[in-house]
């Protein structure tokens, strides 16, 4: 494994559903330890990009490299190894509704480690406590609130102390306080695990609170039109659209649009 | 409330413009004039500007704005100017808002040639693609079964036991009802014919052989397709919409091993057991009808004993295995390939039941023809 390669490198990626082009010619790096935000208006392909990055969809053109290794060109054993290092939360939760929170969180541990049942139960208890759900082991996802489901999803995502954390709209549908708490939780996870974080979101508050790198996807030109630290992009992006997005509709230079 | 008819009047305005004066009740409660009549009136005039005017007694709501929007679009295509400054403040703002974003230009679909539209290979090609997908699914199920045999599949025993319970004990009530009635129906059907020869006692043979070879397995399968096959499709379809299947894949777990195998195996195990139970209940139903026709229970059972053979039972059980596999595969295939909306889940469920029942009948016919030729 080459250590100086960026943690994730997206190379000339084109995404399409059949003949329907979503985004094309995306090239960017996510460095080790970054909190990287994928942003853009609704329906521009943010979640689709994330699903490409976690290997669910195959690129139409281009490739994605993780510390220099291509996911699409590795065999099953190599993919298994790469996935071991990822923690993912989904837009709609993605918790298995037929399993309790404990079983949900235990699943990656059963899948990737040789731990016994009692050791797994201990780790599950610890992970649930980390996200503020201590004692909720035997609840089913449908029995807890939306914010708790998001946190349970986070517990499952961090079960294996991942290297890369992927979040698809983590704070969608949460009230401002819960979503701020979730942001803090994500930052703490990142710092204590030393993980790289990739987030799909359009919540400005989250973007400025946690991100240090970002890419902006545009639905009209079907490609990325900005790349870099969102705070800087707000001030001096060459694209009016990006400045307006980041300044919440006000154009970047203080005058209202 | 005064209700004046909604109307407009066109007249020559100053400086080469046409005035359209709106008056009356332009509201959703009253019929508004059709825009096409105005359009044809406007065709007659040469002015490049249309000025909207309003009468003092104008009542308006969305009906007026919808009409104005058509005027706006008309002017846009003819490159005329629409002067809306005389409209009430609210109406002007709403019109401005609804015209702020240009309407989506829908590219005219390329006209397809006659040959392309009638292309006889298109449905064949679609059929081929769906056949390919189905074969791929069956292939991955076989691979997963292989992995399971080697003890390396991600299939959880608790899931299997759950589905076993769902498909077995919980289905007993409805299986009891349907097979009892089917046994009765068979008996009635036979009794009417056999009575002509004074051979009522052979009703027992008819019911027993009919249940064991055919109706026991088929009726149970139809009930299970509607009950369990549909449930499988709905469960997996919902998991697809809630990104649960994505989560399974990204955990490095094969959805076929994790989700399909426990369901498939549960049905394969439970179907023969349910069929044995259905056979028993069906024969009881037949006996009840026969006793009403002068065939005593002892006579009935004595006659049953002569035709009940292991071969007959095995034919039914063999069918049960095939049917169980078909139902589970149809349900799981539809569920896993479900789209990501709630409408798609409904579609997947319908598909699962329809496919399962069609395949059940086709398979049943094929098995019967094969057995006939083998002389079993």
Automatic annotation (TrEMBL), chain B:
Q: Which InterPro entries match?
A: Permease_MalE
Q: Does the keyword Membrane apply?
A: yes
Q: Name one Pfam family in it.
A: MlaE
**Highest rank taxon of the organism:** Bacteria
* Keywords assigned: Membrane, Transmembrane, Transmembrane helix
Transmembrane region positions? 171-195, 215-235, 247-270, 276-301, 313-336, 348-371
The UniProt record lists the keyword Metal-binding:
no
Q: What is this protein called?
A: ABC transporter permease
Q: Which organism is it from?
A: Candidatus Litorirhabdus singularis
